[in-house]
Each structure stands twice: as C-alpha cells, then as structure tokens.
Amino acid sequence: MRSSASARPAVDASAAPAAAAAALPAPARARLSRLADLALLVAASLVLFVFESLAPSPLPWLRLGLANVVTVAVLFSDGVAAALLVTLARVLLGSLLVGGFLSPAFLLSISGGLAGLLAMAAARRLAPRALSAVGVSVAGSVGHNVGQLLALSLVFVRTADALRLLPYLVLSATLTGCLTGLLAAALIAYLAPRRRLGHGAVT
Amino acid sequence: MSADSRAPRGGIRSALAATTWGDRVLVALLLAASLAGVALAGPSPRATTATVRVGGREAARLALATDRTLAVRGPLGETEIVVEGGAARVVASPCRRKVCVRMGRAARRGDLLVCVPNRVVVEVDGSETGALDAILR
C-alpha cells in the first residue's frame, strides 16, 4: 500500500468514502476492494465461529467447522496467503470473542487451523484439477482434526492413547468436511461474479 | 445489490453438481480407512485401574473394582472424580464448559477423561498397556 502513496492523487479527506475510493487509480482501488472483501470475509467467518461455539452439540468433540467455509472460499479466490491471513485473524479474534485467548484451548484452535490450511493448500497444489471445493474442504477438515490430535497428544495428554480417537475423528471430519465443502462451493459461486465486477462482496 | 441480479445463482444443488471424481475418491478412501480403523480397533478390553494426573503429574491411582470418590486440586479448583461399577467419571469440575463432566464414563482400556482448563487427565489402564505403539509418525 505504501508504495502506491506517491501515485495516489490528492483526495479530499472530507469526501464520502465511496467518492474517495472512486478517485483512486484502478490498481489501488482493486487492492482496497480486495482488502475490504477479506475484512468482510473475516467478519463472516467470525460470526459462523461464534455461532457454532454457542450452539449446543450432541457430542462435545463434534464440530461442523462452519468457519472453514470462508477459509475454503478465500483459498480458492485469493490464494494461500489470504487464506492464512483470514484463518489467523479468525482464530485470534474468535478467541477474544468466545474467550480463551492464549489458553490451552487456543493452542489447540490455532494448531488445528494451521494444520487444516496446510492440508488444503497441499490438496490444491497436488491435485488442482481433480479436487473441487468439496474435496479440498474434506482434506482441510481431516487435517484440522489430525493437527489438533497431534497437538493434544504432544502438549497436554502426553500419551499416544489420544490417537485411539483418530479413526472416529477422521470419519466425522470427512462427513462434516463434505457439508462445509458444499457450502463453500456455493459461497465461491456466489462471490466470484460479484467480485469480478470490481466492487466489494456486499456492496 | 439489485445490479447483481444477472449473476448466476450458486446454491447447494449446483455445488453438488460441481463435485469431481477426485472428491468422491478422496471421500471414499477416507471413509473406508476410518471405518477400517474403527473396526480394527474394536472395543477395548475393560480396564482395571485409573490414573489421575494434574498438569502431567500423577496425583492418584485408583482401582476400578473399588467404588470411591476422589477430589483433586487443579489450577482452577477441585475436580471431583467418582469410581463406580468398574468405571471412572468426572462428576464436578470448576471449569466453564464442563466438557469433562459430559465425557461420561471411562471403563475401557485407553479411555480418557480430560479437563483442559483444570489440567486434569483421568486415564484408565493407560501408559502401561502400550496398546497404540503401532501408531507412529
């Protein structure tokens, strides 16, 4: 952003934000639009995250991973770096909203988030044609659970017996990954034409 | 938003239609592997002792054959553990979400009751069995 400061024409600071954005050169406007989109998507994933943490669950360890819908969509539309940004922002802000910032549960949350993203980026890289958003989401969901279980067994439980849960977690992660993947595919299809038109996701 | 009416509608149905053979192979492989894992693991044998650890340090070792109640002190306060009918369970905990209480009974070898906030782990017949030594990464 800083590099474009010299190229930016003088904009009246008192002008309405929309008018100010329109006065910017096209590349700067595109960056601004992308930044606003990503901020909105972080907010959307936070809402899903908070909703899911408040909603009752039949099994304490079973989660849908709704926030991952947004991560998958960002991974497809903006790439790994943007998806990493959205994931980290969601984990940090989510822990501030729900509670537990820097607590043991936070460590599990961030290791799951990063492992899930790693698995999704790897799936995208290894099979860019073969996998749609559903396959990538399933990879991310399974990666999330495996990463969390590894962190749990390395840091807290100090026993390989936590890995006994692995088949059950992979089973549930595959099913929930399919569901969130379908939602992500719908979100990608919804966002793509709107963002190509050059305005923000909800403008 | 009205200007976007020409944008194609996404929806779950078209998302379902957009799935690839690769998606289906991946899902089928993962389902098969996890179901095989569940089947191979089978029901674990019944456990005989419960080891209670607080912050990784052993606090008590209980025989599951003898009914009793135990309270251990963690960073948040006292977690109450009951041994009854060959199973251990957490009946009271100072933590906020009570996940440990809702985990129910631990009776099978390798079962775990974990309260992460209060750093309490109850493991029945855990470390001495070495049942999962085959899983290495």
Describe, in plain words, how this protein is organized in 3D.
The complex is a heterodimer of chains A (203) and B (137). Chain A has 203 residues and is mainly α. Chain A has one domain: Arp2/3 complex 21 kDa subunit ARPC3. In chain A, 71% of the residues lie in helices and 0% in strands. Chain A has seven helices and no strands. Chain A has helices at 17-22, 26-54, 67-78, 80-98, 104-126, 133-156, 166-196. Chain A is globular, with a radius of gyration of 19 Å. The two termini of chain A are 22 Å apart. Residues 1-8 of chain A have low confidence and may be disordered. With 137 residues, chain B is of the alpha+beta class. Chain B is built from three helices and eight strands. The radius of gyration of chain B is 23 Å and the shape is elongated. In chain B, 26% of the residues are buried. Chains A and B meet through α5, α6 and α7 of A and α1 and α2 of B.
